[in-house]
Amino acid sequence: MSTLIEATGALHIRVCSSWDDLEIVRADWDSLLTASSSIFLTLEWLTAWWRSYGSGRELVSLLFFTPEDELVGAAPLYLDTRNVALGRKLTLLRLVGDGSGDSDDLDFPIRPGYEAACAEKFLSWLRAYKWDLCVLATLDENSRFRKCLLRSLGSAGWPFLETRSPHLFISFPESWECYLKRLAPEFRPLLGRYPRRLRSKHQIQIFRSTTQDLEKNLLKLFSLHKQRWNARGGSGAFSNPGRCQFYREMAHNFSGRGWLEFWLMDLDGTTVAAQFCFRFRDTVYLLQEGFDPKYANEKIGYALRAATLEHFIREGVGKYDFLAGADSYKLRFGAEESTYRNIEFAKASTRGSAYLALDRFGHNARQRARTHLPQPLMHFLRRTLGKANGARNLFLRH
Question: Can you give the residue ranges of every domain in the chain?
Answer without folding.
Answer: 12-166+340-396, 173-317
